[in-house]
């Protein structure tokens, strides 16, 4: 099928490349000319395992193009994906101005024939009908308004995780389609059939991927409810970890013990320094904001947010317990990104830890496998970025493991302990082997263990 994806951030680019890989002809559009230039030259603007390789092969096969020309993309696509950002406004409300600009642009460029317009962006409940209105508005403003234009809007929320986005796209737990229109749903089902049949999955023998067809509002709500549930689950285990710390239990053992109950499940029970990233924080706030608009107080979601706020500072609290005064001490951060296998720093817990350590007068160094000094941004200006973990450890009064990058499992901790002023490590993700670290000469401090 002919597809146009508008917005080439994590979601847009991964969606465009993967749809092309399963056989569709895809044009990806972005209004950032620099990004388009980079992608045209075959380079991915984001770090995402496996993405560059797929991008190259699809471009070589002639099924994937990049442009900033919206008119060309709208003309090409039978299915038009809106995949632009919906960041949080200071009120917590979702900023839908980019979605609005794209919807208007689609209206201004529709040239007859039937199109399905898909909301892939995470948008407030009710946005499906709103997008239809904006498209109609764009269409009406044209002097040459074509008569035979016909379109429907479908909500198709995205559940991929950064760092495993390609894997998640080929191995989805479900595909959600929200619309009241059978023709639009049928076209979306045809588009996704190879994924439903697990033709590109790691295990093609599994039963077909469930396709959940709902009305527009319910599909939009499914996205917010999924993220809010997962964020709450992490806040729950973090609260349990804080109690474990006080009573002398080990939260990793507790998580294993409760996770075996199939009603609970073992995923998203890793206690640590809290959830961050481009989605959980903004989506939970957006859902709270929506509820407030309807005069409903979200007590549970408010608690999930406040537990998380506090949890982000737990590493600093533990540093104070170990070192007492932080002024003038050197703290080394192992990892900066909000999770491993991504270069995304949006709402990363590291940023809050850095802000607090700066306030308390500590000197901060960091090592991250993907973040370099030259690529510094996002409030990291007071941080010295080292190029390897041993240089990071040199003269530090303590280390904090912030991101659970796999390579941190096999560092030479013996050598690192020797070059530190004081070999203390706060394992902010309960990721390392305590006995291995203690044998290497470290004083190990976990979260809730
Ligand atoms: N990042 C994730 O892991 C993830 C997962 C699921 C859902 N989502 C949702 O998907 C949406 C996109 O998220 P993202 O992280 O990929 O966004 P992003 O901010 O990384 O990228 C958005 C892209 O859209 C482009 N853009 C903005 N306005 C445009 C316009 N008028 N025309 C063309 N391009 C335009 C920007 O230049 C940018 O490249 C958001 O609603 C987000 O909540 C994100
Ligand atoms: O047991 C856990 C699991 C995760 N995290 C943290 O939670 C945050 C989010 O992690 P993850 O969900 O793996 O990453 P995202 O890429 O933000 O993906 C989430 O947000 C996306 C955007 O909406 C959704 O599409 C995904 O389904 C949803 O998992 C990160 O800071 C993790 O460190 C924990 O602290 N403990």
TrEMBL record:
Signal peptide: none annotated. Pfam families: UDPG_MGDP_dh, UDPG_MGDP_dh_C, UDPG_MGDP_dh_N. Substrate binds at residues 159-162, 223, 268-272, 276, 339. The active site is at 279 (nucleophile). NAD(+) binds at residues 30, 35, 86, 122, 162, 282, 346. Keywords: NAD, Oxidoreductase. It catalyses: UDP-alpha-D-glucose + 2 NAD(+) + H2O = UDP-alpha-D-glucuronate + 2 NADH + 3 H(+). It comes from the Bacteria. SMART domains: UDPG_MGDP_dh_C. Its EC number is 1.1.1.22. The keyword Metal-binding does not apply. GO terms for biological process: polysaccharide biosynthetic process; UDP-glucuronate biosynthetic process. Residues 332-434 form the UDP-glucose/GDP-mannose dehydrogenase C-terminal domain. Pathway: Nucleotide-sugar biosynthesis; UDP-alpha-D-glucuronate biosynthesis; UDP-alpha-D-glucuronate from UDP-alpha-D-glucose: step 1/1. GO terms for molecular function: NAD binding; UDP-glucose 6-dehydrogenase activity. Belongs to the UDP-glucose/GDP-mannose dehydrogenase family. This is UDP-glucose 6-dehydrogenase.
């Amino acid at each position: 099928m002919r597809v146009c994806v508008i917005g080439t951030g994590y979601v847009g680019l991964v969606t465009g490349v993967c749809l092309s890989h399963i056989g569709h002809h895809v044009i990806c559009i972005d209004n950032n000319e620099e990004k388009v230039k980079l992608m045209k030259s075959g380079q991915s603007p984001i770090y995402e395992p496996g993405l560059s390789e797929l991008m190259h092969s699809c471009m070589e096969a002639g099924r994937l193009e990049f442009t900033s020309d919206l008119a060309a993309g709208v003309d090409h696509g039978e299915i038009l994906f809106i995949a632009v950002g919906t960041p949080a406004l200071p009120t917590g409300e979702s900023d839908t101005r980019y979605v609005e600009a794209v919807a208007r642009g689609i209206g201004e460029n529709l040239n007859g024939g039937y199109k399905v317009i898909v909301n892939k962006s995470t948008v407030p409940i009710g946005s499906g009908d709103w997008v239809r209105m904006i498209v109609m508005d764009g269409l009406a403003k044209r002097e040459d308004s074509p008569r035979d234009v016909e379109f429907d809007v479908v909500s198709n929320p995205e559940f991929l995780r950064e760092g495993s986005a390609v894997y998640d796209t080929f191995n989805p737990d479900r595909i959600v389609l929200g619309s009241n229109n059978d023709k639009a749903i049928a076209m979306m089902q045809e588009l996704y059939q190879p994924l439903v049949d697990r033709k590109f999955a790691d295990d093609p023998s599994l039963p077909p991927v469930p396709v959940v067809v709902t009305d527009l509002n319910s599909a939009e709500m499914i996205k917010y409810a999924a993220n809010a549930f997962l964020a709450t689950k992490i806040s729950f285990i973090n609260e349990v970890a804080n109690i474990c710390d006080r009573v002398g239990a080990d939260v990793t053992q507790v998580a294993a013990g409760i996770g075996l109950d199939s009603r609970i499940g073992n995923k998203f029970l890793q206690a640590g320094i809290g959830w961050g990233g481009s989605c959980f924080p903004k989506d939970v706030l957006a859902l709270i904001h929506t509820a407030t608009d309807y005069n409903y107080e979200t007590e549970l979601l408010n608690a999930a947010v406040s537990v998380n706020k506090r949890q982000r500072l737990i590493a600093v609290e533990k540093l104070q317990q170990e070192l007492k005064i932080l002024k003038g001490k050197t703290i080394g951060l192992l990892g900066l990104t909000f999770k491993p296998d991504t270069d995304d720093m949006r709402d990363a817990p590291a940023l809050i830890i850095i802000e607090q350590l700066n306030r308390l007068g500590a000197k901060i160094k960091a090592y991250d496998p993907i973040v370099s000094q030259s690529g510094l941004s996002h409030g990291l200006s007071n941080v010295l970025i080292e190029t390897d973990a041993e240089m990071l450890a040199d003269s530090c009064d303590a280390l904090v493991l912030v991101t659970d990058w796999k390579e941190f499992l096999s560092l030479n901790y013996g050598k690192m302990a020797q070059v530190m002023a004081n070999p203390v490590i706060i394992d902010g993700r309960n990721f390392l082997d305590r006995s291995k670290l203690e044998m290497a000469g470290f004083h190990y401090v976990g979260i809730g263990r």
